[in-house]
Amino acid sequence: MVYKVMLVDDESIDLEWLQRRIPWGNMGMQVTAQFNSSFHALNKLSEQPVDILITDINMPIMSGLELARKAKAQQSELIIIFVSGHEEFDYAKQALQMSAFGYVLKPFQDSELLQLLEQAIDHLNAAHYRNNEQRQWAEALPLLKSEQVIQWLEGAFVQHREEAEAYIRSSFYGHRNECGFMIIMIEIDDVEWKLNRLSVAEKEALMNKVIGIIDQAVGNLNYTQVKLIKPAANRFTVIIPVPKVVDPIIDTLTEAINQVKQSTLLTVTIALGQKVEHIEGLPQSYDTARKLLSYKMFLGKNRILEEQSVKGNVSQEAIDLELKVESLFIAMSEYNLVRIDDLIQQLFRFMTGLESRVTVYQFVIHLISRLGEKFRQAEENLYDLLHWDYKHLDVLFQFETIDDIQSWLRRRFFELSEKLYAKKQRQNRKTIDQIKNYVKTQIEHKPTLRDVSRVFAFSPNYLGYMFKEETGENFSEFLVRMRLERACELLLDPAIKIYEITERIGYKNIIYFNRQFKEHYGMTPSDYRRLHKI
């Protein structure tokens, strides 16, 4: 960072000396203005502030002290350095009393002013760091507070309870006419597959449009302290003070749902937690809203979900479905085709109880979407692996029976599992190649299985297992082979003694080295050297 400096002295020679003798650029400073008059300097400061003001004390009409006093009133953080003669030492004492950074007495050596300027730069750097840190903290504080609130609502960190409650209470300070509070949870539907083929810019623009509609709807509720807590991923959590009549809230949110569907290719589903009398009850309302969204497959999307929407065994069915999706993902990851087929049959046995073709199609789309989320959490992309976008799912509407859909889905899931397995194999091969290259380059540093596993962030047992599976060779056998190959290279240099080679490649016993070398190459190291003598 370059700091701006203003020079003020009624003696032109002194101004010229200050301008020329100090290596301003090398010190990270720039002289942006110089004046013979305090009046002109003060006018310029009001238009164009600087970081450091260097001024003579004794000047006609307006002294340097008066200039400094007025400049400080305009810019409290301004660093002021006074220049004065020995006969003006009393002025210098006054300068120190008015919080001047320092002063030098004429005539002075360059080193005196340089030292003072270096101290000034240190001071400015520290202040800049503090201000930047404070700014970053001010920007991060709402996010940190929101994260604390979410953690408290989810029951993850009890120690944040008091801070979270105090933060929410301060947000709603002054509201006395409401009869309680409510969590509203808003989820953008099908983000995983509908936005998959869009560019990053297109995704951002579309999501921002949906967020804008939601934000405006929440603002239209006319409660100034409505709190949008976490606009993360595809879900928003809103805390709202609830009036006695809830209908206006539902009407406004319904309008937002319709607007999103009409103006974008996305839809939103909104879950209402139950009303609670006090802020302390919000975690219960949050839990209700979150559960309602987890039942979306059974209750429907692009609508408002309330507790009275839940019928019969919906909650247990939702739990069972989530467990099956998790099992299906694991089976795909392990390339277990038998298990995949078994789970598909279980899912379709459930599907035969659905009421209409549209419900069946929605179920399959929901299933694929949930799997897409599982893959995303594992840093994989289901749609990239299958070269899909959401239009490919239109094929579902061409099938006339559940058996047709089941057969199609089985082929796609088998294909997905095979591609995932093949990708994992390629990744394993790439990792093994990296391990081989690493061992080869480090062989004289005597690497062990434990050393290598630490470098590649595997457990020794798993690395040994993966190495054997991929190469058909034990890691210990590979290590011996690399040592002996390096020994052959070193044997070509007659200046290196055989016992030195033995030590360099990690053998403590030359007899054992000779025996292993002969077993591998059919000759002793000495014979190998004579045979390859240049």
Describe the protein's architecture and organization.
The chain has 534 residues and is α/β, with parallel strands linked by helices. Among the domains are: 3-128, Response regulator (Rossmann fold), CATH 3.40.50.2300; 172-292, Reverse transcriptase/Diguanylate cyclase domain (Alpha-Beta Plaits, 2-Layer Sandwich). It contains 22 helices and 10 strands. The strands form 2 sheets. A 5-stranded parallel beta sheet has the order 2-1-3-4-5, sandwiched between helices. Strand 4, helix 4 and strand 5 (102-106) form a beta-alpha-beta unit. Helix 2 packs parallel to helix 3, helix 5 (110-154) packs across helix 6 (161-171) and helix 16 crosses helix 18 (460-471). It starts with a strand and ends with a helix. Residues 136-144 have low confidence and may be disordered.
Task: Provide the descriptors you would attach to this structure in a database record.
Rossmann fold; 534 residues; 60% helix; alpha/beta; 5-stranded mixed beta sheet; 10 strands; Alpha-Beta Plaits; 5-stranded parallel beta sheet; 10% strand
Structural class designation: alpha/beta
Q: Indicate the low-confidence ranges by residue numbers.
A: 136-144
CATH architectural label of the domain at 3-128 = 3-Layer(aba) Sandwich
The termini sit apart by 62 Å
User: Given the C-alpha coordinates, what overall shape results?
Assistant: flat
Strand content range: 5-15%
Multimeric organization: single chain
Write down the overall mean pLDDT: 79
Q: How many extended strands?
A: 10
Q: What's the helix count?
A: 22
Using the CA coordinates, give the radius of gyration.
37 Å
Largest sheet: 5 strands, parallel
The strand order across the widest sheet is 2-1-3-4-5
Could you name the CATH class of the domain at 3-128?
A: Alpha Beta
Helix content: 55-70%
CATH topology of the domain at 3-128: Rossmann fold
In CATH terms, the superfamily of the domain at 3-128 is Response regulator
